[in-house]
User: Fold this.
Amino acid sequence: MNKENINPDPGCAGGFAGASDGRLGALLRESRVSPALPPRFQEGVWRRIEEAAAPVKVTGGITWLDALVTLVLRPRFALATATVLMVAGALLGVREGNQMAHQDAQARYLAVVAPNSLR
Amino acid sequence: MNRSLVILLGALVLGVALFGGSYFAGQRACRMTRPADDLSWLRDEFHLTDAEMTRIQKLHEGYLPKCAEMCAKIAAKKSELETALGGATNVNPVAQQKLAELAALRAQCQSQMLQHFIEVSRTMPPEPGRHYLAEMQRLTLGFHEQTEQSMSGSMGHEHHQP
Assistant:
């Protein structure tokens, strides 16, 4: 708020004017009705300041997911995983293929030597 | 959707595709590289030598025309049976005779087949020969045993019912 010189006599200056301003200011402060602060106001202010200053918290589920993605996107890890998957798939496929080929061959032999009408 | 989740799901899909592709490629390659002749199972299953396979091949080639002839006779007899049964509401004497002839033909054919298995088993070393004969009897005659056992089992169950 701007302090204005409300002295009606502009020619009058010096100590009298200063003392008059001081008294007037005190009177004005006393006359101003300031509302009562809510309970625990100061504590609330500090809490909000601390919250604003703290880094943004992330929810628990996202943290491990981000860590996992960081791991997955590492070239060495990605290459190793892809290699393991391909080798495991191929080995399992060959094993299954062997069994299927064996069963196919048995069925072929049986179909030739023992037609279905005899079994 | 969360970016990390999308990346992770993409990696998962890629991993599944890699595994599945390798699996099917391996399976296909394995099945395609196997020999496709009629006797390849014998060679692999009983670990036979080339000399044994040559003897078995001769027996096999000798047996096939006899088997085809018997199969043709059985097919003709089945056709006769169907004609005898055509539109009939009961089993007439002609149909009964055809059934008996069909059964006799099947028995003759099975006997011939078992004789062939015995001859093949004799060309093998003793242990694989026994294994082959047991396996062929199980595969060709076992089906009827299973059916008969299941039927007699269900009949027994019925007898116990009040």
Observations:
- Residues 50-85 of chain B form the longest helix (36 residues).
- Residues 1-34 of chain B form one domain.
- The radius of gyration of chain B is 26 Å.
- The helical segments of chain B are 3-33, 40-46, 50-85, 93-123, 126-160.
